[in-house]
Amino acid sequence: MKNFFDYYFEHAEKNPNKVLLRIDNESLTYGEFVDKTAEIASGMKKLNIKKNDKIGIIMPNSIEWYLIFWSAVRIGAQPVPLDPQSGEFELVKLIPATTVKICFAAEKYRNNPIIEVLKKIIPEKVTINKIICFTENSSDIFDDIFISSKQFQEDFCQDTCDTYIPENEHIMSLACTSGSTGNPKILSVPYYGFLKAAEDMGSYLEFSENEVMMIGMTLYHQGGFGMGLQTTVKGGTVIYQPQFNPITFLETVQKYKVTVIQLTSTLAKVLLSAPDFDKYDLSSVKACYFAGEVLPQELADVFANQLGIRVINIIGSSETATMVVWDSDCDFDCDPSDFRKLPFTDFKVLGADMQEVEENEIGELCIFTDAVITDYFGNPQLSNEKIHTDENGRRWFCTGDLVIKLPNGKVRFAGRSKRIIKRGGNLVHAEEVEACLLTHQKIAAAAVTAEDHPIIGQQITAYIQPNGDEKVTRGEIAKYFDGRLSAYKVPDKVVLVEEIPKDVGKIQFKYLRKKQYAVKEV
Length: 522
Fold this sequence. Notes:
Elements: H1 4-14, E1 19-23, E2 26-29, H2 30-46, E3 54-58, H3 63-74, E4 78-81, H4 88-98, E5 100-106, H5 114-121, E6 130-134, E7 146-148, H6 149-156, E8 171-178, E9 184-190, H7 191-204, E10 212-215, H8 222-232, E11 237-240, H9 246-255, E12 260-263, H10 265-272, E13 287-290, H11 297-306, E14 310-317, E15 321-327, E16 338-341, E17 346-350, E18 362-368, H12 380-386, E19 387-389, E20 395-405, E21 411-416, E22 420-423, E23 426-429, H13 430-437, E24 443-453, E25 457-466, H14 474-481, E26 493-497, E27 502-503, E28 506-507, E29 518-521
């Protein structure tokens, strides 16, 4: 059975100077990838990292991120990518929950001072052996726990190492999201299942070593990372940006003759609105991948009909990789929200009794793929609830997505059963935002919900009941969230109310917009 490094070694031997990864003006060839992961992996081993030890990565898209991830995999350790926007409120839960032993961290990302945040919680609140810091300033931040990336390279990374050959059920990595209660939800990603998903989808899309894929998502997002693998297992090139910028995105597509682009609907709208969009040469692009948001028919038509680009719209999740697809090459006669099985996936539409619903009825989408996670790390109760193994040993995942079972063997996406706010390309759990709001001394009660937004799909609306006569503004809340939660989780709209309506302690969201409750928007 081939593993990821079998592919990378083959591509490096065949064409060592071929670019594997490009981020802005930096690039990494297949040959460099093989050599550098060996060095970094040897450094990890000198830090006493062993098989199945967890290695945190709190960094934005970068060549270093990619090398650290695969260096951990190379020795059988498990990388744990964490959102670089994570603040103290999140990291004090995530680091212990994932049992991270050492961590690689950027100095900052956007307005989040990552290393400063880590300094606040380590070692007083969180135990960790070593933090390797990628920073230009080697001042007083370093001590026995915090060391510079330069020191790590010079003191530990002077050797090479053998490559670990994974067993059948080996866990490649842990992927982290926030659970519906605001607690960490940690996914155990199966090595060979994740590899097979990349192989199968790359073959379905007829990818080759000539592919150049430009991805709008982030590396720490399981979907953005996984889509890139569909190209690299074929020997192609994948390109990311440190942060999405429509002009540099278009310039990069034109400069490097990108053949496949990946976008969300929100990013696509931003891209199409870029100044002089029509002047960019996109003739090399043969396919556009949409994922993460609902794709309107009008937007699909722009790409498929006006631009002549094949549109691939998928429903996927971090728990399953790709699940179902709408493909403009063969599904043009139906809406992009009507999905069919792929040759290597299967689905059921289940009712409340866990039995298949009849045609034209609504139910929960339950999915089989080879990449279905083995479990939620450290959470057997949630694992038993969401993951089921059939008599053939196939793992099925109950997605929480509501779909209509269509007569033609397809399903129509109808919505999500959880209180998840789809703000642009980010999933925001309302309960986590509420939990942070409730730590503010001026706030007595809070309820967070989604409202439709013409640009980002949904916006975060927070209804806040102040303590006594206290006054709370959105600006004050944004400042309060800084360093506690990711910036995109800051409420877009704040409405002060006299009382949060409840029934036996449960918030009655349907009453929140009633005039008797609302005081004013701030």
